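Exam revision sheet. Question 4 asks you to relate a sequence to its structure. Input first:
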Amino acid sequence: MNSFLQFFLLLPFFGFVISLFLPSTKEVYISRVAFYTVLIQLLTLIGFTVKWLLIGAPDLDLKEITILRTVGYEFFIEFYLDKVSVVFLLLGALLTFMITTYSRYYLHREEGYKRFFCTVLLFFFGFNLAILSGNFETLFVGWEIIGISSFLLIAFYRDRNLPVKNAFKVFSVYRIGDVGIILAMWASHHLWHENITFMKLNNAQLVNEHLQNHTFIGVFISLGIVLAAAAKSAQLPFSSWLPRAMEGPTPSSAIFYGSLSVHLGLFLMLRTFPFWENQTSVRVAIVLMGFTTSFMAYFMARVQSSVKSQVAYGSIVQIGLIFVEIALGFDNLALVHIAGNAFLRTYQLLVSPSVVSYLIKEQFYTFTPKAISKENGFSKRLANTLYILSLKEFKLERFMDLILWKPLKDIGHKFDFLTLGFLYLIFIPIYLLGFFAFLYKVELPATIREVLPETFAFIGLVLVFKSFSERRSPFIAWVLIIMNYFWISLAISFNDTVTINELVIYLSGSLIAGIVGYIALLRLAAIEKTINLNQYLGHSYEHPKFAIFFLIAVLGVIGFPITSTFVGVDIIFSHIESDQVLLAFLISLSFIIAGIAGIRIYARLFLGQHIKTYHALSYRSS
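Answer key, structure tokens:
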């Protein structure tokens, strides 16, 4: 049965590929491909599950392919299936089938009909890949696919500025959470001295032997996992992104943020539970996070004026409680709770347009305010305080801005004096100086040689900060992202174990995509005369194929799993020593901010209200 796991990935992938080549005017064919792809997946999965239960429900493990093997390192794709995987696979197939059926009619004659179904199938492929993953590397591939799918579906109404802004916010939070997974993967390489599989994590004796002698690194890995799960499942302090994600179409809100995507953080916690179950401090932290999130989200849900926002915060409340259940060891209860919450939120979101329409009419005839409220037992001062805090969402958005986005922008704005010519004039000589330092590193004093990797990594990080905050030239922002990869490769080259071939693997994907993207920017500038990053330009309206072409270039530059850079990032981290925590943090942050900066360039150039005034004005929000 192990080899049959591949079918659950190949089917949605082929469905996605077929959808790409269908004409956008053929709604019937587009919807049928999605409908039958998910239907076959669901029926096959039900039959597979029955047979799997009849043979005793064994854990299945399949090492599919080794992509790269070097001395002391192996990047391989691994699949793993247990009861957690089966529950999530069935849940994903059933709900996606419902959504595709609903969307066939709901989105009829919508301009982005094909784009919607293609993105849903891409998400479905990424979801199955993440659920069936047998190691962190495979999980991260699916994790990234789900992230970009989320961005595209929230920004579905791409001629409106607010959906695009919210899509970018959600993608940014996802990327910040990715820091946790990247650092957890790096630390686990040093803890296990291999790419540990989830199958081996179930070996309690093996895990305890390693953690007894490496308590700190065990807690570090667990906290990285918790950070990634909290960002993905909208727990504190990341809760404010979930209502913003509701700007997409109702079906995508239902499948992503009501049922599947928002529960992936819980899946990550269940999958890694054997690793952190004996770390009491981590379990206490998860319980506190879950209870605090549920408490705050409960009051925020009660003051929402939008039904979709109310459903979003209601879902956050339940997800916080599920985190508590997982931390207390009630995994079966958590799985039942996840399924119940997913079905309920999907149903609520799908019927919300009809319910709102009904209640608007009903309130004119039979509306009566509630005589008894849950807050009647509170003092007036406490009730008013909670009301204002809930309206302001406990200042979570402001908190994230102060501790994260504002410092990034402030650092970037320090370099507003840079022009493209000045950039080449200053940084190329400095890079050449660093390259000569690498060539003659043996002659350098030990104290200087030890700080150079962190210094070069910091220079690369500053460059992506500037790219993130750049508001004038997309050429400057684009070149800064490419330069960042060269500085990281220079920083890691001081490690004697890294080889030239490994650096070439790391640089080749981003460099090729970078050249392609730069040529695309030149072409766009020639067509549109002036392009800048100070506002949304909406060029996808007149250049839709150009927008897709540039998006692919962006994905290649930011290390999306379509180029060698994605594998190269894992190689780079395998060469960072266990005592180089600062270097690991700087490189991981550079990778994450570079991804955010790249998507920002795409969003500013091709999404939002079109800059040309002869196009019809769209609504600000959906």
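Marking note for examiners. The chain has a mean pLDDT of 84.
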